[in-house]
Amino acid sequence: MNTIRQYRPAFFEGFENETVEFSTDEELINIPFVKNFSNDKFSHYAVSDNHLMAIYDDGFEWWVIGTIQCPASVKLPKWNGGKYCALLEGKEVVLSKEVVSSCGDVLTLRDGRKAKNLRRGG
After folding, report:
1. Where does the pLDDT of residue 120 fall: very low under 50, low under 70, confident under 90, or very high at 90 and above?
2. CB distance 108 to 116 below 8 Å
């Protein structure tokens, strides 16, 4: 038996995060607070370390759903990082693994360069 603990950002006050047991991936994705993430822009679920993620818009938007107690037993895809539509040195580009941080509309790249985030995802 495994568990997932619902995640809400700290600015959500007055709510209790649920902890729910599950045995299979199918049971996991059918937990009501997990299933609520599958809307019209939804792409797929993925696992990042011990977090269950909801991926939207082909990876340009993502949200943490919850923390999984034993992520090794979950056979969903591994999250490969988000995508960013960016303005870098005057050109529109799609960035992914080269982004080390995102703050507002500024992306910082591994090599220290900065790019402008043209879309607000994640």
Report:
1. low
2. no
pLDDT tens for 92-110 read 999 999 999 999 999 999 9
Handedness of CA 101, 102, 105, 107 (dihedral sign): positive
CA distance 57 to 121: 9
Q: Could you report how far apart the first and last alpha carbons of the chain are, in Å?
A: 30
Give the C-alpha separation, 35 to 4, whole Å: 13
In order of 20, 46, 55, 58, 62, the CA distances from 80 in angstroms are 26, 9, 11, 12, 11
Two structure tokens written together for 22 = 């599950």
Burial class from Cβ neighbours inside 10 Å (0-12, 13-18, 19+) for residue 45 reads buried
pTM for the full predicted model: 0.84
Rounded Cα–Cα distance for residues 7 and 17 (Å): 7
